[in-house]
Amino acid sequence: MWYKGQKIAVWGDQNKANGHFGAEEKSRSAIAGKFEDIPIIDISGIHSSDINERMRVAGQIRDACVRVGFFYAKGHGVPQDIIDKTFEWAEQFFALPFEDKMELFINNQGNYRGYTPLYGSGKPDVDGLANANEAFDWGLDSKLNDDAGYDCMDPFMQGHNVWPRQLPGFEDHLSAYFGALRSLGRVLARNIALSLGLPEDLFDDYLTHPGCSAVVAHYPPLESGSTKLGLDPHTDNEFLTLLAPGKVRALEVLNRDGQWISAPPIDGTFIVNVGDQLQRLTNNLYISTKHRVINHTGEERISVPFFFSANWEAVIDPLPELVGKDTKIESNNVTAGQMYKHTMLALHMPADANPTFKKYLKA
Ligand SMILES: O=C(O)CCC(=O)C(=O)O
Ligand SMILES: [Fe+2]
Asked: Record's InterPro entries (predicted)?
């Protein structure tokens, strides 16, 4: 495919960075109490004008990204109030009648924004039902774009967000949340560059209009003994994920021994993880670690992942600085937008075959 005179390669699962560790443990029970294996980092120094402060954080981030691919970020600077309000709006959205939510059915939007019904994404089980979560996705569009020089015409990602007409105020708040997290992502990316021993502005050109997206997700409690998953094991596609995990423990992270480690929420922190883009850019130095969601707590769970991505047209190849002098870079010229589109198509395909959802598909 061609875009602005540039040939874009075909992207597929075989190209996913997929840096999970070890063989996948089949057990459905996670090891609790080992969450200290996921480091807690006070990242407040990323905003400091003192390079020593920034370097101190960068060292810890490097260690976490090389060993684990995940860390808890405290001192992130996003006001708790804006995070709490996002959860309140999410609750109001999920409380809407099913028919209202299906007005925004994600499979009807060319840019994969809007509503994913319960069991409507992921890999279908023997009962034909897939992930036990419902979700609302929004992300960069021409309204949320803050780069005057960008036309939002990526060949893979075009169109606007859709918003629930029943909830005035929802769009404004989620847009503000998007802006706050995008700002944090840009500062974090500078610290990541530092953590790689590279100039702090290294990623700036990748992030002039980052193709970020975000999700409010609802994971109802699963019955004990249920074989269902809230979210299948996967790696995230983007540069970094900044997850507001809410109050209910359900996220599990695959460690080097192939064991699932529980990653419970810790007040005042985001759970940050390396995505496939960053793994690829760092030539597999930083690891995009597999994770999944299982809610066996008996409580309703809401979480809000923010996927911080490079510009959609940015080609995601290993940085020459991180590739040995004699190693040839195998460029396949894949863009961030293409990686995102591919991931979203694969994730949402099952709903097209499900009779409950099929009738909502628009021709
Ligand atoms: O809700 C969570 O804990 C994680 C969600 C997640 O992994 C994702 O949406 O990619
Ligand atoms: Fe994820």
From this structure: DIOX_N, IPNS-like_FE2OG_OXY, IPNS-like_sf, Oxoglu/Fe-dep_dioxygenase_dom
Ligand 1, closest atom to CA 263?
A: 3
Q: Assign domain 41-244+268-288+303-358 to its CATH architecture.
A: Sandwich (2.60)
| E strands present in 14-129 | 40-42, 70-74, 114-116
User: Cβ(243) to ligand 1 under 6 A?
Assistant: yes
Whether the ipTM is more than 0.90: the answer is yes
What does the block give as tokens for 73?
A: 């970020």
Contact 298, 64 (CB under 8 A): no
**149 Cα–ligand 1 center, Å:** 32
Atom of ligand 1 nearest to the CA of 133: 1
Of the candidates 342, 356, 179, 352, the one whose C-alpha atom is nearest the C-alpha of residue 276 is 342
pLDDT digits (tens, 9 = 90+) for 70-92: 999 999 999 999 999 999 999 99
Residue 88 amino acid letter: E
Q: Is the pTM above the cut of 0.90?
A: yes
Q: Identify the sign of the CA torsion 154, 160, 162, 163.
A: positive
